[in-house]
Specification:
This is DUF4373 domain-containing protein. This protein has 309 residues and is mostly helical. The protein has helices at residues 18-44, 54-61, 65-73, 90-95, 97-125, 142-202, 207-219, 226-238, 243-253, 260-275, 298-308; strands at 50-51, 79-80, 86-88. It has 11 helices and 3 strands. The protein is flat, with a radius of gyration of 33 Å.
Length: 309
Amino acid sequence: MAKNKFYFSHDGGARNDDKMIAVRMKHKAEGYAVYFMILEKMLESSDYILFKDYNVLAFDFRVGSDLVKSIVEDFGLFEFTDDNKSFYSKSFKSRMEPLENLRKQRREAGLKSAEKRAKSTKNQQNPTVVERSLTKNPTKESKVNNNTNVLLQKPTNTREENFEEENSQNQNSTFKNFQEEKEKSSAKKEKELESVKNFLVENGADYTDVSEWFRKRIEERKATTRYYAEKFILECKKNNISVREGVYACAFNGWVNFNPQWVINQKESNSKSSKNGSKEKQSDDPNDPKVGKENLSAYEKLRQQMARG
């Protein structure tokens, strides 16, 4: 489960709403489930608006893109932005107002707490000097007066110096511990990532392709875990796609996410082009001498350079 757990209200009789009845009549319980998965995705967005990319949503929900498109467009459940590139729900935004108020309160509380800590630190840094006025017989007691001031000031300064020194040592120690933990965490993540890459290679993928694909996924903050790799391999097997072919397609086409249907569509398109008398299909392997330099994609050129280097 995610660390940030937020909730939205779900009416007890939502399934009996007129629009929901229409959804269930056409798409049954699956359509009802997809609708609420869309709301969950909106909750994860900062502005409760989703980009109208039905293929990506379909891959996330493990359903067909036609079903997602129908839920969004056919039942009046969502509104669209002026450029028609994104969609949102007015009623859902209204229900999220308490959450927005909570977030605002937390931000304000955090700012007030920071200001309070800053003032407290500033007050601690200002030295306090206790002066005692001796008005009786100032001439005779001048030496006593001077000695008294020295005795009162010296311990105070000593305590402040000790505090500053101790505070500095604590800060240095804390920063050092933080750096060590950060380095350990980074090394652990690198080790885990390398393990997942090797796992895909063991199942037939090319290491260069895996590295390029995972680089894009990391940039987009997508999962690169062993669990995701296992799910990817399972999807490939279910659709008669080799792991090598699936990984290569993602790296070659710049796909961050993987949808087996995209690979199938691409293969069918290439097959049709070949039957219609197009140029002879060239090898995907950049090391194949039949591949002309002018026909190499940027990614294929990169693979060729890495293979030679």
